Amino acid sequence: MNSELYSITALMLLKLFAFKNTKKMQIFLRNLSSALFIVSLHVVRNMVKYKPFQHINLSRISEKMHKSGFVNIVGNPNVGKSTLLKLIYDEKLVSGYAQWQGEIAKGRQRLGYLAQELPEEDGNKPVYAYISDADGFDDTTPGELARIEAELGLSGGDLYSDRVINSFSGGEKVKLRIARLLIERPDALLLDEPSNDLDIETLEWLEKFISGCDRPIMFVSHDETLIERTANVVVHIELLRKKSLPRYTVARMPYRQYVSERLSGFTKQEQLARKEHDEFAKQMERYRSIEAKVERDQAAISRQDPHGGQLLKKKMHAVKSMGKRFEREREEITEYPDAEDAIFVKFPESASVPAGKTVVDFGPAVLKIGDKVLAENVSLFVRGPEKICIIGRNGAGKTTLLREIAESLMPRGDIKAAYMPQAYEELLDMDATPVGFLARKGGKEEVKNGGAEGQPPCCSQAEDGLGRPTSCRRPFFSDSPRWSGRQGPCPAPAAPGCRVPPSL
To answer: What is the 3-state secondary structure (H, E, C) of 40-102?
Structure first.
């Protein structure tokens, strides 16, 4: 195999077919030269459907990625981005919530996969135990470990530390996890939201790491700056028409250029569609006028004029043929551009705080994790509906400060507060269903039937706030607790929306 050329063929979304219609799902991919690919998904009949609703998100895509290729997968939550990466790396990772058909042929190539979340058992390990569990660690020399530390911006000896992984900041965790991947000597990297929970300094480091990497990388990220500065191929996955019509776009260009050309294309398509629809409407108006006139003439003609009646009958036949031709032309009219509905959060107007109300009077305090002092003499005073942003480097104590403020707010009787933590597991029972979390009393009937005084059901309030159309509301009543990483927080702000807290 030419060592200077690598490619990835990835399984992706194209069309939404009924599960029982297997003929429509038979997709034959052309043979790809295996000498040029490190991963090939040769799919004869493939499908990825999500349990329990048989919602098919993924179909096929064949995408080449060269050694210098950095492919970014973008899209709203729950369109299949993480499922794609998991499926490429190890199909067993999706078996619990998705089904698929086809073949994945990787050959002897090794893939490195960075999951969106660090497994709990790994987070409780000391660094050295975590690193030494990597495949190939025994064959890695101290000099190579030192080189990896330098490449990732880690301090000398960090990989030998007995400090528990979970005690590190988000940026430090990402570096340690990537260090373990590099020890395994992968031919390509699959990174699922590596930019989550990173400060600006670590994001700049991640940008340099991706740009300077000598391996192809396929990654998922919502950080537009990172995408703009690293990706040279964009894969955009969408669910259109109230989340019922999947579409994907592959753009071999930088992200900003893709966005610009996409918006420009939408504008041109909308102008063309409006022009063609207007012309067709005028054409149909003339047609209906002619049809109505012939119908009036037929109704008015005397039976004493059979020849005239015969002519009108032929004329009506020609008019009907013209109508059928217009209907065929209607199918060829340029459609108005479709764009995916954005997810948003809205809160009821009743969730407000009087301007003179003291919301937070915190400190002075010392922020600590164990014996480590993060910050001293921290004080914060908030009055009224202020919006406060806490900034700082990873490990400076931002999350610790917010957690302590939440602990002081939650028990208060004069104000209702809601807290959405960085680690959703602190708030969400990951084995519970969304409806169980959203219900005030934890029961489905209470949520479905609504509260007192005819108030709308809690889930309806929540899903309205999250921008979900009525036709897509079933997942809130799903018995499956699985949500994408970005959907995990969805029930969190939704629940405060139901419970109307004035402080979030």
So the answer is: ECCCCECEEEECCCCEEEECCCCCCCCCCCEEEEECCCCCCHHHHHHHHHCHHHHCCCEEEEC
Measured distance CA(408)–CA(360) in Å, rounded:
8
Token pair 């948003």 is found at: 344
- Predicted confidence (pLDDT) per residue in 62-82, tens digit: 444 555 567 888 777 777 788
Q: Dig out the tokens for 334 from the structure.
A: 């340029």
Q: Are 380 and 358 in contact (CB under 8 A)?
A: no
Pull the structure tokens for residue 292: 């109505």
* CA-closest candidate to residue 107, choices 170, 35, 49, 165: 35
CA-based nearest residue to 473, from 103, 42, 177, 55: 55
Tens digits of residue pLDDT in 46-65? 345 554 434 444 444 444 45
Supply 191's token pair: 């990174």
400 phi and psi, to 5 degrees?
-60, -40
CA atoms of 466 and 131, how far apart (whole Å):
40
At 79, list the tokens. Answer: 């369109």
Per-residue b/e over 353-389, b at no fewer than 16 CB within 10 Å?
Answer: beeeeebbebbebebeeeeeebeeebeeebeeeeeee
Q: Strand pairing partners for 383?
A: 358
What average pLDDT does the structure give for the chain?
Answer: 73
Q: Spell 160-197 as b/e; 16+ CB within 10 A means b.
A: ebeeebebbbbbbbbbbbbbbbbbeebbbbbbbbbbbb
Residues 149-159 have pLDDT tens digits of 988 888 878 88
Residues 70 and 233: beta-carbon distance below 8 Å: yes
**Other CB atoms closer than 10 Å to residue 336's CB: what's the count?**
13
Residue 81 buriedness (CB in 10 A; 0-12 / 13-18 / 19+): buried
Q: Report residue 486's pLDDT band, with 50, 70 and 90 as the boundaries.
A: low
Judge whether 9 and 104 are in contact, CB under 8 Å. no
Report the pLDDT value the prediction gives residue 305, as an integer from 0 to 100: 82
How confident is residue 457, by pLDDT bands cut at 50, 70 and 90?
A: low
CA–CA distance, 245 with 446 (Å, rounded to integer): 32
DSSP 438-457: HSSSS-HHHHHH--GGGPPP
Let me know: does 39 contact 9? Beta carbons within 8 Å.
yes
* pLDDT, position 191: 93
Distance linking the first and last C-alpha atoms of the chain = 56
Helix (H) or strand (E) run with residue 9 in it: none
Write b or e for each residue in 264-274: b if 16 or more Cβ atoms lie within 10 A of its Cβ, otherwise e.
eeeeeeeeeee
User: Quick check: bond before 502 cis, omega within 30?
Assistant: no
